[in-house]
Design a protein that fits this description.
Oligomer: single chain
CATH superfamily: Amino acid/polyamine transporter I
Number of strands: 0
Order of helices and strands: HHHHHHHHHHHHHHHHHHH
CATH topology: Amino acid/polyamine transporter I
């Protein structure tokens, strides 16, 4: 492939200056480093926060909060790997990187595998989203209807481009921020002995818990795609750390509240420990405030579907040479349809939880091993990659 890769930015854009990017990338897909913070938070913080305390306490018991902190090291490593990879090829998109490193055919195949992963990941989020909505908000609504509403909402946002995706993430972040403080209200009656003694779970249990908690941080891999769209490449590592820091803080608060209110033994038998805690919060005006809070959380929980969906659609449209201003919506629908169908396949909640566990493990392949392989090849090829 001679000349400039069709999925590359110019030298001006690499320095942070926007440019006309031809047929495949337009101004609606250019985002700032600040917006990247909210995208990373949105990609990581979703429905999984409802069940995270149960998963980590099953492995580490009263040390569950500790493995939440240690689990953040995995996405931090992913962030560093992707940032180093992007720094070596600042003008190349995710698809362009794959073509340069693996060749056109194998590179395109790698992108397709990434899209398949996103579809599977999205389907588990949609299914769990549907289960929570039916149980707590819409008990008489059929699951296919709830899932369809979620998918169509995500499709609408994705079609608007990366900039709108980023703005939606930012708005939802500020909406949920007060709820993070509200959920700490039960700490008035907390039993702080529930998290003592620290470290009693042992090294093996902590290691297993770190694996479970790292699955909850899935989503950092969207940076593989969004790196190319950020104007100021030099601020990406800072944005990633801030986004990951907020996610870690939110997970830590929720896990600690559940541990201090219920104890590790009780939350292991509760499907959605965070929602159970919300039910204990009382307000003079609202009879059931958890319904209002849950409704807001549901809006926030859809963010991983939007962010991952855009990353997959943007990449697939480049591989297929689809013009974003004409046929991008067809690419989005081609991803949304199998996502919707897969979301309805689990026979019950137990199967859905098992799918979510598998999705967490595959996220380690897509988010850690995949970019690490790309970085190793880029380092081996050295300057040849940068000038390709």
């Amino acid at each position: 492939m001679k000349g400039r890769c069709p999925y590359q930015l110019s030298r001006n854009s690499a320095r942070g200056e926007p440019e006309q990017r031809g047929e495949r990338v337009n101004n609606t897909d250019i985002i700032t480093s600040k917006q990247l913070i909210f995208i990373i938070i949105g990609a990581q913080t979703g429905i999984g926060i409802f069940s995270l305390p149960r998963l980590v306490s099953a492995e580490a018991h009263q040390d569950a909060w500790l493995v939440v902190l240690l689990g953040a090291l995995v996405p931090l490593l992913i962030l560093i790997i992707i940032e180093r990879l992007g720094r070596r090829m600042p003008e190349s998109s995710f698809v362009g990187m794959n073509h340069l490193l693996f060749g056109r055919w194998l590179g395109s195949a790698m992108v397709f595998l990434f899209v398949v992963y996103v579809v599977f990941f999205q389907s588990t989020v949609v299914r769990l989203f549907t289960e929570i909505t039916i149980v707590f908000l819409l008990p008489r609504t059929p699951a296919p209807v709830v899932a369809l509403m979620v998918v169509l909402g995500a499709v609408y946002i994705i079609n608007k481009g990366a900039r709108v995706v980023a703005r939606v993430n930012e708005v939802l972040f500020w909406i949920i921020l007060p709820l993070l403080f509200i959920i700490m209200a039960p700490l008035i009656n907390a039993d702080y002995t529930e998290i003592l003694p620290v470290g009693e779970a042992g090294v093996k249990a902590l290691a297993q818990g770190v694996l479970s908690s790292s699955n909850a941080y899935a989503g950092m891999e969207v940076l593989l795609v969004f790196y190319f769209l950020v104007k100021s490449k030099g601020e990406i590592i800072k944005a990633g750390i801030l986004g990951l820091g907020w996610t870690t803080l939110a997970y830590l608060i929720v896990t600690l509240v559940c541990l201090l209110v219920w104890g590790s033994e009780i939350i292991q038998v509760i499907n959605w420990p965070m929602l159970t805690v919300l039910k204990t919060i009382k307000f003079p005006v609202l009879e059931r405030p958890e319904i209002l809070m849950l409704a807001v959380w549901m809006g926030v929980g859809v963010r991983p579907i939007v962010n991952m969906g855009f990353a997959a659609a943007f990449s697939l449209s480049e591989v297929l040479h689809v013009k974003p201003d004409k046929y991008f919506h067809l690419v989005v629908m081609s991803i949304a349809l199998p996502t919707y169908i897969l979301a309805l396949l689990p026979a019950n909640l137990i199967v859905a939880f098992k799918w979510a566990e598998y999705a967490g493990y595959t996220s380690l392949l897509a988010g850690l091993l995949y970019p690490l392989l790309m970085l190793v090849i880029a380092v081996i090829r050295g300057k040849g990659v940068q000038s390709a």
